[in-house]
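Researcher: For the record, we're logging two predictions in this thread. I'll number them. Prediction 1 follows.
Model: Prediction 1, sequence and structure:
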Amino acid sequence: MKFVQRRLGETANASSGRKLTGREYLRIVLFVVLGLVFINLFVWATVEVGVRFISVEREAVLFSFLGGEDDGAPELELYRDTLEKLRTHPSVLPYPYRLFLVEDDRPNAFAVMGGAIGITQGLVETLGDDEIAVAFLLGHELGHFAHRDHLRGAGRALLLAGCYSLFFPQGGGDCVSGMTYEAIITAYSRRQEEQADLFGLRLVYDVYGHTDGATRLLERLHEDRKIPDWAYMFTTHPGPERRIRLLENALEQMEAEATS
């Protein structure tokens, strides 16, 4: 049998060295973009349907272990009394609300699934005994519960992470998926925060009849800000100045409605 050496260009495994055309690159990019759009629409629809099937009572049972019980911290006495006043409002959902103190110098508060609200030591020191400021802060967190933002946020994070790991099992899409995830969550979170601000302002106005001092924390954050206003477009919270302006406009509308 005579051996005949084939040229490399005729073998099946030889690379022709052909580069992708601009149209082929465009098709790949379009496919990736459509895939990301489909993933996020799927996640959005799934979370929205899922939240409707999880009642407040069921959520309280499922996530009762988060945040623990009210730790009885004396620093939160004003917060407990204020919460009792606010929770009687019909717009506040009937969660088994409880407060717990967080040893953190940064002024912050956050809603936890199941009805817990974390308050940092730094926030307690910043607000002092200003009940209206405390009421607005708690009203903001109650707004997150009323809109079920905590459930939506957790659901989106878990589903997006699962979908991206499924479509990019080797980690090759980590950069793209991470950037897309951050862009979506950041924009969505800013809308949530603004809606929670408006909820808190309305709640304070209805319960106390005025909102004097409600923006105290935001004004303090604006004074102590370490980034320029334009940089807040890359954060999960809108800038303090924008939030204050939004609240002032909303308050004008409330007062106009009350006098009309």
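Researcher: Logged. Prediction 2.
Model: Prediction 2, sequence and structure:
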Amino acid sequence: MCLTNFVFKWYALINCYTLILLHLLSYFYVCLSSIYESTINYHNLNYCKLTLFDQIPNPVQLQLTRPLAFFDLETTGVDTVSDKIIEIAILKVLPGGEIDKYHAVCNPGRPIPSEASAVHGFTDEMVKDKPLFSAIAAEIGAFLQECDFAGFNSNRFDIPLLVEEMLRAGVDLEIEKRQAVDVQRIYHKLERRNLEAAYQYYCNKTLENAHSAMADVTATYEVLLAQLAKYKELENDVTFLTNFSEDGKFIDVARRLVEKRGRICFNFGKYKDMPVDEVLRKEPNYYDWVMKSDFPLHTKMKLKELKSKMSV
């Protein structure tokens, strides 16, 4: 009987200490979460606070001299000239390591094709009461002020489409003054797979909510940090990463003008690979045709600059 009472008392004591320990661990978790949360700012002016992936591991601290803005777009399609933005998510990493986030959903001003809805899940009904992109373009431009850019396939898709949408809204991002790190180009050069595979490979995680813009952009940021930790040949420097991830010296974001052998050439049509200045001197009407045709606004802007330099 005494032995039974002794065992019962020890069992009760152990349970008591276990409960105290669990309460202490819960308290410390809440405290740490509050401290971490205070380092992240949210810019969702008309939208709900998004907390997905807030606990971002940092195997490497990016070496930055100015903010690096990772961003991802969900759109009505893949044409960087005519398609429209539905969702934009930006994760801005400041030189000190702090993270600033922006997220917005827009009404594209046109029906969303079913093929696009099948990818990202947005429907006409979901965005009918959202603002047009032009209504938030100025605030996006302000958020991206003094930032370099980064993304996944951003050099070929996200940057050209964002620049086009911003120009339509009367905002010039002055892309030539920014550097652009394409995490997909680094990945394809060194591993050659898509974002979900990159996230699994580098971060040992499954990407939940793929094609949700904030999930994709946060995963892209994590992948770059993991790439810097894994590959000794990569320098923790935005200029190096920009040069490493680029696949050509393009003058405009739509890649219609390209530098080859020290000359700026057309990268399309019957004069592909021919120097712009030679073509415009040989056939001046070609300039007028480009300016009146359905080419990207940024392409037209850069071609106009090149033509003005010729006449100086």
